[in-house]
Automatic annotation (TrEMBL), chains A, B:
Single GO biological process annotation from the record: alpha-amino acid metabolic process
The UniProt record lists the keyword ATP-binding: no
Cofactor: pyridoxal 5'-phosphate
Classification via CDD domains: AAT_like
InterPro entries: Aminotransferase_I/II_large, Class-I_PLP-dep_aminotransf, PyrdxlP-dep_Trfase, PyrdxlP-dep_Trfase_major, PyrdxlP-dep_Trfase_small
Pfam families registered for this protein in UniProt: Aminotran_1_2 (PF00155)
The name this protein goes by in its record: Aminotransferase
Signal peptide (UniProt feature, chain positions): none
The family this protein is said to belong to: Belongs to the class-I pyridoxal-phosphate-dependent aminotransferase family.
The protein's assembly and partners: Homodimer.
Origin: domain of life: Bacteria
Transmembrane segments: none
Length: 413, 413
C-alpha cells in the first residue's frame, strides 16, 4: 500500500475482544435491533416473495437517463461535482425544488428555503436534533412511519398517538390531545398515501388540523415521499399550503420518483428553522454528495418529473389492483381499504391474530410482510400488517398472496 | 406537474414569517454560525487566494477512472446501485477496506468490522450519539479538528484539551488529565498530519498514549483522513494496532485520496461498538449512497489506492515546500514546523497578534486563512493560523504568501 512498508510491531489487536464494559450514552438503551429486520434478513432469498420492503421496482429505474446525466456532469463540471460543496446543497437543484413546489402547490418558495438532505430520512434526524429535548412530546398518527420513530427516539421524546381513520388524522383527537399537552413540540404527519396505511388525508382534514396546530404553535413536520405516486383522485395541497405562521417543515425525496441509491431528499421550511438545520447538518456530514445532487438536477433537465413518474404509476396501480383482487378472493378475512397511491396496502385480521408470530411462521411459507404493530410507537395492534405491492409483478403478487393465505389458514389465531 | 391540477386554495403561506417563538432543543444553544464561515463566504471570489479550505486540488481528481467505474457499475448492476441498500454498507467495499487495513497496518480485520459512513464526518456524529451523555468528558489534542468539535458539541460534552508538542499528544498531560477525570468517555486524536497542525505522532507516543488509555478504558477515536498523504518519513502504525482491549474506533475516508464528492468514509471498530453504530445510522440516513460505494469499489479495482495517491503527493509536497520557502523569505516572524504530509501548515505569530482580526482585514488584501483559535474548544491561542497548501499552485502560493505578509506588515499587532 504505502511506498515504504509500514512499521508494524504487533499483530492484531483488541478488535476481536468484546469490551463488555463500554459505557454507551443513555439514549442507546432504546436503540434495539429490530427483530423484524433480523427475520427479514433470513428471507432475503430469491425464492422468497417479500411484501415487506417499501422499495421501488428496480426494473423501472431510469438507467439511461442516469447514464446521460452522469456523463454530462462529469464532462461539464467534474471539478465541482467531485469536490466538497456547501452544506445547504447544490444551488440549481434547490431552485428547481422551490419552483416545482410553487408550481405544484401554489407556494411562494425560494431556493434559499430549501435544504438538501441525505435522503429525507436525514431531515427527520436533523429535526429531532434541532427540536427535541428529553421528554418532549411528539404527536403522530396512529400508526406512523417506523423510520420517524427511529429517527426521533434517540432524542428521548414521548410519543403520543393521534387517532386516525380513512380520511387521515382525526381533528377532535388532535384537539383533545393538544389540550392535554399544550407544550407538545412536534406534530409528525404523512398526509399522502401514508406509510404504513396508504391513507390520504381529505382536504377538510388538512385544513382543520392546521387550524388546530396554529392555535398551539406546534411545529408540524410534513413528510411527503409518496405524493407524486397518485393513481386516482385529486392531488391535494400539502399542510404547508395552509401554514399561516411559519410552523411547517416539509420533507420531500427523490427516492420514490427517481431512485433511492443517490440518497437525495430535501426540507423546505421557514428560515428560522432552516438556518439552524444547516448548522446541525454541517456537524453531521458536511454536505450531501455533490455529484449525486448534480446528476439528479441534470436528470430533471432531460425530462419533467411527471414524465419519470408516469412510468411508475401505471405499473404500480396495476399491482395494487392485482393485490387487492387476489386478497378479496383468497383472504376475505383480511380487511383493507384500497389506497389511492403510494406503495402500501394496510390489512387488518380479526383482533385475536398476532402478525409477529405469523411472520415467524412465514419462513416456512417463503412469504414476508411487516407486522403492523411495529408502526405504533406505544405498541399494540398486533393483528395488523403492511403489504407492499410495488416490488412484485402480478404473477408474484398472485403467488405471494396465495402463500399468505396458506400461512394464515394453516395457523391458529 | 401532476396529471390533474392540484387543488390549491390559497397562496403562500407562512414561509416568509419568522416565527420568533420556535422552541428549539437546548442543545442548539451551542450551534452558532461560525463567523469565520461567514467571512470565508465573502472571500469565495476568483481573485481571492484562499489558504483557508482543507480541500484537495480538483485538477488532480481521477475523472477518467470515475467515468469508467460509473459506466461499469451502471452496466453490470444498476438495479443494486440505484436501489436501497443495507445500512452496514456495500459488502465488497467493506472487505476491500478490511484487507487494505490488514495489509497496511498488520491488523486482523474482517469486512464485518467495517461500517461505511457518509464521509468520516458522519462517523464522528454517530460516535457522539452512541457515547456522549450531557457533561461527559471528551479528551482531545490541543488544538484539534474543528469538525470533531462541531460533531460532538450537540451532545453537550465537556472538552478537556491535552497538551501537544511536535511529537503529538504529551503522555504526561494525558496521564494527569485522566487521573483527574478517570470517567472520561472518549479520547479523540488525529495522529497523522493532524488537522490543523500538520503534526505526526511519534511511534513512542502512540505506544505510550495507548498504554495509558488502556488503563483507563476510555474509548479512543482515531481519525485518519490524511495518513496516505505522506511526503517523507516512515508510515507509522495506527493507535488501533496497539489496541489490546477493543477500545479503538478508527475512522478512514476516501475524500482526500480519491475525491470528497462521493461522501464515502468508514469506521473500523470492535463489534460491540459497530452493532450499535449501525442501529444509530439506520435512523440517521438509512444507508450511504449505494452507487457511490460501488463506484469507489470499482475505482479501486482499476488501480491500487497507492497509484491514486502517488499522483497527489508529488504535487502536494512541492506546494508545501513552496509555501515553506516563501514564508521563510517573506514572513520570518511566523513560526512553523514543516509537516511531513497532509494538507496543512500551522503558523504561530508572536503572542500579541489576533488572527481573527487579521482575517477580517484580509478581505482588503484578498487573502484568506483559518484563525487557529477556532481549533481550541476552550478558546485562546488567537495568535495562530492554519494555512492550506494543497489547493493553490506554486505561483498562487507565492502571490498569496506575499499578500499575507503585506496584510501582517500593514496591521498593528
Amino acid at each position: 500500500m504505502a511506498q515504504q512498508r509500514t512499521v508494524v510491531e504487533q499483530g492484531n489487536s483488541g478488535l476481536g475482544k468484546q469490551a463488555g464494559r463500554v459505557r454507551f450514552a443513555k439514549r442507546t438503551d432504546r436503540m434495539k435491533a429490530s427483530e423484524i429486520r433480523e427475520i427479514l434478513k433470513l428471507m432475503a432469498q430469491p425464492d422468497f416473495i417479500s411484501f415487506a420492503g417499501g422499495i421501488p421496482d428496480p426494473d423501472l429505474f431510469p438507467v439511461e437517463e442516469v447514464r446521460i446525466a452522469t456523463e454530462r456532469v462529469l464532462q461539464q463540471s467534474f471539478r465541482t461535482a467531485l469536490q466538497y460543496a456547501p452544506t445547504e446543497g447544490y444551488g440549481p437543484l434547490r431552485e428547481w425544488i422551490a419552483a416545482y413546489m410553487n408550481e405544484t402547490f401554489g407556494l411562494g418558495l425560494e431556493g434559499a428555503d430549501v435544504l438538501i438532505t441525505s435522503g429525507s430520512q436525514q431531515g427527520l434526524d436533523l429535526i429531532g436534533k434541532l427540536l427535541l429535548d428529553e421528554g418532549d412530546v411528539v404527536l403522530c398518527e396512529s400508526p406512523t412511519y417506523l423510520g420517524a420513530i427511529q429517527a426521533f427516539q434517540p432524542y428521548n421524546p414521548r410519543f403520543i398517538e393521534i387517532e386516525t381513520d380513512n380520511d387521515g388524522m382525526i381533528p377532535e383527537s388532535l384537539e383533545s390531545t393538544l389540550a392535554a399537552y399544550p407544550e407538545a413540540k412536534l406534530l409528525y404527519a404523512v398526509p399522502n398515501y401514508q406509510n404504513p396505511t396508504g391513507r390520504t388525508w381529505s382536504l377538510e382534514r388538512r385544513k382543520r388540523v392546521m387550524e388546530i396546530a396554529a392555535r398551539y404553535a406546534v411545529t408540524v413536520v410534513e413528510d411527503d415521499p409518496y405524493g407524486e405516486l397518485r393513481f386516482e383522485g385529486d392531488r391535494l395541497p400539502p399542510l404547508q399550503a395552509f401554514d399561516q405562521q411559519g410552523q411547517v417543515m416539509y420533507l420531500g425525496s427523490f427516492s420514490k420518483v427517481l431512485c433511492p441509491g443517490y440518497r437525495v431528499g430535501w426540507t423546505a421550511a421557514p428560515k428560522v428553522y432552516l438556518e439552524k438545520m444547516v448548522l446541525a447538518k454541517q456537524g453531521v456530514d458536511l454536505h450531501t454528495s455533490s455529484i449525486n445532487q448534480m446528476i439528479i438536477y441534470e436528470m430533471l433537465q432531460q425530462q419533467s418529473l411527471s414524465a419519470y413518474v408516469s412510468r411508475l404509476i401505471g405499473t404500480y396501480k396495476e399491482r395494487r389492483d392485482a393485490m387487492a383482487g387476489v386478497l378479496r378472493e383468497k383472504l376475505p378475512e383480511l380487511k383493507f381499504q384500497l389506497p389511492q397511491g403510494g406503495l402500501f396496502l394496510w390489512g387488518e385480521l380479526p383482533e385475536q391474530w398476532n402478525c409477529r408470530t405469523l411472520l415467524e411462521n412465514g419462513v416456512q411459507h417463503k412469504i414476508a410482510f411487516v407486522p403492523g404493530g411495529s408502526f405504533y410507537p406505544n405498541g399494540g395492534h398486533e393483528h395488523t400488517m403492511r403489504l407492499n405491492y410495488s416490488l412484485s409483478d402480478e404473477q408474484r403478487i398472485r403467488e405471494g398472496v396465495g402463500r399468505l393465505a396458506a400461512l394464515i389458514h394453516s395457523t391458529q389465531a
